Amino acid sequence: xxxxxxxxxxxxxxxxxxxxxxxxxxxxxxxxxxxxxxxxxxxxxxxxxxxxxxxxxxxxxxxxxxxxxxxxxxxxxxxxxxxxxxxxxxxxxxxxxxxxxxxxxxxxxxxxxxxxxxxxxxxxxxxxxxxxxxxxxxxxxxxxxxxxxxxx
Length: 152
Prior knowledge:
This protein is an all-alpha fold. Among the domains are: 71 residues; 35 residues. The protein is built from six helices and no strands. The N and C termini lie far apart (168 Å). Keywords: Coiled coil, Membrane, Transmembrane, Transmembrane helix.
C-alpha cells in the first residue's frame, strides 16, 4: 500500500510537476510580451507614433486656445479697470465742478470793488464829520489823552 500510496503521491507529484512548468514559462512569458512589441510591423509602430503626435498637436491647440482666451480675458480686465479709473476721475471732476460752482456762487454774493470803495469813502466822510462835530461841541474832553502827555 505504501507503494500504492507512493504511486498516488507520485501521481499527484506528476500533477505537481506540471504546475512548476507553467510557473517557469510565466517568467519566459514576460520577455515574450516585450519581444512581440519589437516584432510588430513598422506600420503599426508608425500608427502609434502618428496617434501620439495627433494627441500632442491637439494638446498644443488646446493650450494655444487657452492662452488666447486668457489674453482676451486679460485685455477685458484691463479695459474694465481703465473704465473704472476713468469713471472715478469723472466723479472726482464732477465733485470738483460742484465745489467750484458753490464757491463761485458764494463769491458772487460778496460785494464788488465799487461797493467796497463806496463804503471806504462814506466811512472817511463820516469820520471827518464826527470829528468836526466833536470839536465844535467841545467834546474834546471825551477823547482820551495820549499816554505820553500824561506821563509829563
